[in-house]
Write a structure and sequence with these properties.
Layout: H1 6-15, E1 28-29, H2 32-42, E2 49-53, H3 59-67, E3 70-75, H4 78-87, E4 94-98, E5 111-115, H5 121-131, E6 136-142, H6 143-150, H7 160-168, E7 169-177, E8 182-183, E9 190-197, H8 207-217, H9 225-235, H10 241-249, H11 265-280
Parallel strand pairs: 2-3, 2-5, 3-4, 5-6
Antiparallel strand pairs: 1-8, 6-9, 7-9
């Protein structure tokens, strides 16, 4: 069997009274060939506890249930939960959680394998990276989003997302998936990537300050660093002299004449660490003070 035909999918959707939501990005994978490729890259074995976010009609879930020690599927749509319970009823190693993957308690799992709901792709990726200790995640994203995840400095797709994710994770593109392998056929193709926690390289003295600095500066990704600093420091109530003070502290790392889109992770960590020094000196407000 090569997969679920359009007729099969339509029949299942009708059976469970499901009208795919464009807003939620509901398109259902129909190709078992793509499922096999995902499984080959994920290397799931009988020793693995696996998390799948968004089980859909279970085409990936069934294969994961066959291979894994235990599978937890989180699904927000109650009709899909009902479908999954019926589709996966022969497996006693499956837990189906009805709820929002951004809000429910995440399970203990050493691997994540998901065709992610595109509407929550960014938020759930950062959530699992920050809250779970997994070995490997094999996840499918919209192709455009995946390009931003793996983008290198100076590339047109390089953005705040690229920096934030590269601080937390090592990401490798695996393969593209054409839109024709889904029903309903989405407007864009998809890409499967592998994600692992980053364990090498330097980290900021304070990660919250690092993400705050990146968020502040990358509101102006096409500006030169010096100009972006002037705008951002003024916005957060710093004196004009703060820009020169910071650039003096990081002299030899950056000059201030670099375009933000071309700054690499190491440079941003150095900038954030020196902003941290200025916070300690009372020259920059502390974002960690919530009051």
């Amino acid at each position: 069997m090569s997969g679920l035909s359009e007729a099969n999918v339509r029949a299942l959707l009708k059976k469970y009274s499901i009208n795919p939501s464009k807003k939620a990005g509901q398109s259902f994978l129909t190709s078992h060939q793509i499922v096999r490729e995902i499984l080959n890259h994920s290397k799931v074995t009988g020793d693995d506890e696996v998390l799948e976010v968004g089980g859909g009609l279970g085409i990936l879930s069934r294969q994961l249930a066959r291979e894994a020690k235990h599978l937890t599927v989180i699904e927000i749509d109650p009709r899909l939960v009902q479908a999954l319970k019926e589709i996966l009823k022969e497996y006693d190693n499956v837990t189906i959680v009805h709820g929002d993957a951004l809000k429910v308690q995440l399970p203990t799992a050493n691997k994540i394998v998901s065709n992610l709901p595109y509407s929550i792709a960014s938020e759930i990726t950062f959530r699992v990276l920050q809250e779970m200790k997994f070995e490997s995640a094999t996840m499918m994203y919209q192709k455009e989003f995946a390009r931003r995840l793996v983008a290198e400095p100076c590339a047109s797709d390089y953005s705040r997302l690229s920096l934030d994710i590269s601080y937390l994770a090592e990401i490798k593109k695996l393969f593209d998936v054409e839109a024709k392998y889904f029903y309903p056929i989405p407007a864009v193709d998809s890409t499967v990537v592998n994600i692992r926690h980053r364990t090498v390289g330097s980290f900021a003295k304070d990660s919250e300050v690092f993400f705050w600095v990146v968020r502040g500066l990358y509101s102006y990704p096409n500006k030169l660093l010096r100009k972006a600093l002037r705008i951002w420091f003024k916005l957060i109530g710093c004196e004009k002299e703060c820009v020169d003070d910071l650039l003096e502290k990081i002299e030899g790392v950056v000059s201030g004449d670099e375009r933000l889109r071309c700054l690499d992770l190491e440079s941003l960590i150095e900038i954030a660490d020196n902003v941290m020094l200025m916070i300690d000196e009372g020259k920059v407000p502390d974002p960690r003070n919530k009051s």
